[in-house]
Write a structure and sequence with these properties.
Nitrate ABC transporter substrate-binding protein; D-Maltodextrin-Binding Protein, domain 2; signal; single chain; five-stranded mixed beta sheet; NMT1/THI5; 2 domains; alpha/beta; SsuA/THI5; 332 residues
């Protein structure tokens, strides 16, 4: 037996094992806020195209739902990143949760109020019944009360179905511009849709949130996830097919019609590429916008005390030099 050859072989094997370990992908998980849908398209696109893998990440996307508390999962370590919103993030921080927003998906919150044909403005809905979720009562509803004089007495529990809306012609409801209007149209009615962001609602939607300790310990992982996600959105807006395949696999109830409608609507309203993203790139956030959100939460909604340090709830470190710009895509 040649000891020298054996030692050489063992050394080579150890070197290969060390090299493989050095290049092993970092496992991360991303908890979304709902079942897989077009509103999550860019993240599924990044997964489908291998953008996360190229960034050194073994990324898993975990669907949310009406009974899923994503913030609890994040704090319990069940997900590395969470899809949340700016208002919810600051409220969680104020409650003692050590969380920080590192990027955003939407420059415009896709939240809408949907009314029946004939309603001309949001102001026309004052005193009329509107279905609002528990989360909505704590987020956009105080803004509607302040801006349009709505009252809690007109709010009705949102049942996450369009059936009550179709049955009651006096009823309006909340929704996402990318989904519920399409469902109502498919049921035979052309609704009136009010995108709250167009009326000044300042919330950042689909913010990428992480635990503050994780951001501090693993900045390279955070940066890699943010960049790959932004690239996924850039590509999804031009070609949604790779993402759509994974979305349907995760959520078999998703239809091709809703996938197409959601994609077109995201583009039509510049939800991802408008605002600051037009100049600074997809995923960007600004200090001025966060200040406006804090001002709304303190002065309009009375959700936060005036002395709350909202700046601890976000960081621009991972987006200030991101510059993932939208491409010129074929017409939708």
């Amino acid at each position: 037996m040649n000891i020298k050859r054996i030692l050489t072989a063992v050394t080579a094997m150890l070197a290969l094992a060390t090299l493989a370990a050095a290049h092993a992908a970092t496992p991360v998980s991303f908890c979304t806020n709902w079942f897989a849908e077009p509103s999550h398209g860019g993240f599924y696109e990044a997964k489908a195209e291998g953008l996360y893998a190229k960034a050194g990440l073994d990324a898993t996307i975990k669907m949310g739902g009406p009974q899923v508390n994503g913030m609890q999962l994040l704090l319990a370590g069940q997900c590395t990143f969470l899809m949340a919103d700016s208002i919810g993030t600051l409220k969680a921080l104020h409650a003692g949760a050590p969380v920080v927003a590192v990027a955003t998906t939407y420059q415009k919150d896709p939240q809408v109020i949907i009314a029946h044909a004939g309603v001309k403005s949001l102001a026309d809905l004052k005193g009329k019944p509107i279905e609002v979720s528990a989360e909505g009562m704590n987020n956009y509803w105080p803004w509607l009360k302040r801006k349009f004089g709505f009252t809690d007495s007109q709010a009705r529990p949102y049942t996450f179905t369009i059936a009550p809306f179709l049955h009651d012609k006096s009823l309006s409801q909340q929704g996402y511009v990318t989904s519920e209007p399409y469902m109502i149209e498919q049921a035979g009615e052309k609704p009136k849709v009010f995108l709250l962001a167009d009326y000044g609602y300042p919330n950042y939607s689909e913010v990428i949130v992480a635990r503050a300790d994780y951001v501090k310990k693993h900045p390279q992982v955070v940066a890699a996830f943010v960049r790959a996600s932004a690239q996924g959105w850039r590509d999804y807006l031009c070609n949604p097919k790779p993402a759509n395949k994974l979305i349907v696999e995760a959520n078999p109830k998703m239809t091709s019609g809703l996938l197409a409608y959601g994609w077109k609507t995201i583009r039509a309203h510049d939800l991802v590429t408008g605002g600051a993203a037009a100049k600074l790139g997809i995923g960007t956030m600004t200090a001025a916008r966060w200040q406006a959100i804090d001002n709304f939460m303190v002065n309009d909604a009375h959700m936060l005390p005036a002395d709350f340090d909202y700046k601890k709830g976000y960081t621009l470190k991972f987006v200030k030099n991101l510059h993932v710009m939208a491409r010129s895509c074929p017409a939708a």
